[in-house]
Amino acid sequence: MLKRKAEAADRLFHALADANRRAVIERLTRGPATVSELAAHLGVTVAATVQHLQVLQDSELVRSEKNGRVRTCRIDPAGLRSAEAWLQRQRTAWEHSLDRLGAVLDDRTKESGS
Amino acid sequence: MLKRKAEAADRLFHALADANRRAVIERLTRGPATVSELAAHLGVTVAATVQHLQVLQDSELVRSEKNGRVRTCRIDPAGLRSAEAWLQRQRTAWEHSLDRLGAVLDDRTKESGS
DNA sequence: GGGATAGTCAAGTGGTAGCTTAAGTATCCA
DNA sequence: TGGATACTTAAGCTACCACTTGACTATCCC
């Protein structure tokens, strides 16, 4: 199995697969927030929120820095970009394969046609 | 614990979060394949492959039809498109929020400046 | 018909995810 | 200083996931 290279994508899509983590991202696209604010927004404990934030930071979807006792979280565009890149790569590969199929069908038509 | 409702985005990103399922997608972007071919490609049993395919079909990433005893699988672009759409939505929302921040900073500079 | 092929279904297993509570650390401020 | 605030860490619990094996159905073709 070709798993080594896949780890980043694993983490990335796994991070996006949870509704609460996506809610954090959606919230942060509208501006930075503290851990407590995010916890209130999600309706879970602060501890659970910290765990989600860890996952989001590991996949470069969120960054955060701590000032005094307050941790401020914001979007890290790197993760969003590489997720989009993977999907675009697949879509383009698929479209190319459709093009090749089209070319083959055209050739067949030409051969058998006239 | 609250049972999470399996929303579309949940299913979608969860489907993409598994390396074997992504390998199926990558394989299918290069053209259709049967269940056995996919199983051989992944190096897992046919039964496991069928389970992956079920997940991929539920999230509209893959379609399949059965002719005789052979099931042929192909890419369903709907899933890829809606995953891309979600990510793009977040990225543009984030960029707009940066714009608004920029505007505020400009105003502040104008007010306090000179 | 009957053996091989292609896929489906069900049950069981080890591992992991997401959540909680509880106890800790660091910082703020009256 | 000392109490309140903001976050961190650890342990434990339940549910779910990816995978297997084994039995089964449907189809092909000699």
Automatic annotation (TrEMBL), chains A, B:
Which GO molecular function annotation, any one, does this entry have?
DNA-binding transcription factor activity
Q: Which PROSITE patterns match?
A: HTH_ARSR_2
Outline the extent of the HTH arsR-type domain: 1-95
Matches recorded under PANTHER family:
SLL0088 PROTEIN, TRANSCRIPTIONAL REGULATORY PROTEIN
Record-given protein name: Helix-turn-helix transcriptional regulator
